[in-house]
Design a protein that fits this description.
10-stranded mixed beta sheet, alpha/beta, globular, 374 residues, two-stranded parallel sheet, 33% helix
Length: 374
């Protein structure tokens, strides 16, 4: 008769001597190293990690872990495009999340490096400008370096389905005035509380007040200005003042829509530090002079305006504009790329086929005449 086998003890009941592998050495690291490791977690994971133990809970409460305030995230609500049709209930849920998120950042003593938001600052009902001002006043934002602000549109806001009328058009004008006023108020606060911003992306109204405020950010290196109102013109002196007043600017992207009444105006840009210039999203933006000794890359595009002019008027307008090739030869000695195409070393001495094709797509002069105005 074979010997009876001894029953195996359950795994949970077995005991084995503890080894060095049983101890998690994370708590032995310096606090700064622990914070650096936790900084790679998402905001949800940070909150979950606070439930592990009391020491981790104290770490997660550190303001150094809360560097980003991103109000543009749709989170679990929607991942669609702007202007998505939503119900009032969904909007109220999202609005409650925004206020809870703001309270969370303030209670954690966040030390912000990045601020992203998309709020209609002309909204007198929800008062988004007060929410952002409250956030800036109650967190540490002296070291804020990245600002991405759309102050003309609120995410997940129910679309206004009212029929257009003269009254609604008048209300739209009042709303735009409120938007500009509140934007300037917020921008003035940013100049005082966040003077070290190096990267900025926002819609811009090109008023003298707004230009004077944005030129106070002397640390700016990357700037993208989108158009605010298609009927708002930009004077040449305003654009020239902007670029001359930012001594550390390296990259500039402009969304400028020149109104028909200003068609024929040309612009001058001056900057000793600018290395990258993108005006391809603009319409009707023509340069008469560029003084950009450090510029290495330019992107420009001639966009069809969708209007019809008689030949005499068209030629009279185009005769005012110099050729972009001549402007680049005289004002951009270090230019290396045009519209994502690498330029030949001798491009300033003579043109060649590829360069001529690029100029046909980006130059408004008579030499590169086509049907861009038709």
């Amino acid at each position: 008769m074979p010997p009876r086998k001894r029953p195996l003890a359950p795994i949970s009941g077995r005991r084995r001597p503890k080894t060095d592998d049983d101890f998690f050495p994370f708590n032995l690291l310096p606090v700064e190293c622990q914070l650096h490791v936790l900084s790679f977690l998402s905001e949800v994971d940070k909150c979950n990690s606070a439930l592990v133990c009391s020491s981790w809970s104290c770490l997660v409460r550190s303001g150094k872990l809360w560097r980003v305030a991103d109000f543009s995230r749709r989170g679990v609500f929607h991942m669609g495009q702007e202007g998505l049709l939503v119900s009032n209930r969904e909007f109220e849920r999202w609005k409650a999340w925004v206020h809870h998120y703001t309270h969370h950042l303030i209670s954690r003593g966040a030390s912000l490096l990045t601020l992203k938001a998309s709020f209609d600052l002309g909204d007198q009902c929800n008062k988004w400008v007060e929410l952002l001002s409250h956030l800036l006043e109650n967190v540490h934002c002296r070291d804020l370096c990245h600002l991405d602000l759309n102050w003309t549109f609120t995410l997940l806001e129910p679309l206004d389905l009212r029929v257009n009328s003269s009254f609604s058009s008048h209300q739209d004008s009042i709303t735009k005035m409120d938007q500009v006023t509140n934007f300037q108020i917020l921008l003035a606060k940013l100049t005082q509380s966040c003077p070290r911003i190096t990267k900025m992306r926002l819609h811009f109204d090109w008023s003298e007040t707004s230009v004077s405020l944005i030129t106070q950010f002397q640390y700016l290196r990357v700037l993208e200005l989108k158009y605010f109102w298609v009927f708002k013109g930009v004077s040449p002196s305003t654009l020239q003042t902007l670029t001359k007043s930012l001594p550390n600017l390296k990259s500039l992207t402009l969304h400028v829509l020149v109104p028909l009444r200003n068609l024929g105006i040309s612009y001058t840009l001056e900057s000793l530090s600018l290395e990258f210039l993108d005006v391809s999203p603009s319409r009707g933006l023509v340069f008469s002079c560029l003084n950009l000794p450090a510029l290495r890359e330019l992107r420009a595009k001639k966009i069809v305006r969708g209007i019809t002019l008689d030949r005499r008027t068209r030629l009279r307008i185009q005769s005012r504009w110099p050729c972009l090739y001549q402007v680049l030869r005289e004002g951009t000695p270090k230019l290396q790329a045009l519209n994502n195409e690498r330029l030949l070393p001798n491009w300033k001495e003579q043109t060649y086929g590829e360069l001529t094709s690029i100029l046909q797509q980006s130059c408004y002069c008579l030499q590169h005449l086509d049907s861009w105005l038709w």
